[in-house]
Amino acid sequence: MRAGTSIGANIAEGNQAQSKSDFIHKLSIAHKEAFETDYWLNLLRDGEFVTAKQAESLLSDCQELQKILTTSIKTAKTNKT
């Protein structure tokens, strides 16, 4: 729960960044939290705390967030000037 909610919190904080570097840093933290969330979701699935169907839906959303954040970070770095 903590890692998953941290993704949105860091994105929101990044939207109020003081600089482009600060923005990239906040998105990078959100990106790492997305990978941690993926880890926890896999554990929940493997421990049968959630159904495989629930886990696959959540994992799919999490992986989509990872892709969005990867692209956003790359774009921000390219446009850093």
How is the secondary structure organized here?
Elements: H1 2-14, H2 20-46, H3 52-78
General description of the model:
The protein is mainly alpha-helical. The protein has a single domain (2-78), classed as de novo design (two linked rop proteins) (Up-down Bundle), CATH 1.20.1440. The chain has helices at 2-14, 20-46, 52-78. Helix 1 packs antiparallel against helix 2 (20-46) and helix 2 runs antiparallel to helix 3. The radius of gyration is 14 Å and the shape is elongated. The mean pLDDT is 95.
Proportion of residues in extended strands: under 5%
Helix content: over 70%
CATH topology: de novo design (two linked rop proteins)
The number of E-state strands comes to: 0
Number of discrete domains? 1
In the CATH hierarchy, the architecture is Up-down Bundle
The radius of gyration is: 14 Å
CATH top level?
Mainly Alpha
Provide the structure class.
mainly alpha
What low-confidence regions span 5 or more consecutive residues with pLDDT below 50? none
Overall residue-averaged pLDDT value: 95
User: What is the straight-line distance between the termini?
Assistant: 36 Å
* Rough outline: elongated
- What name goes with the CATH superfamily? 23S rRNA-intervening sequence
Order of helices and strands: HHH
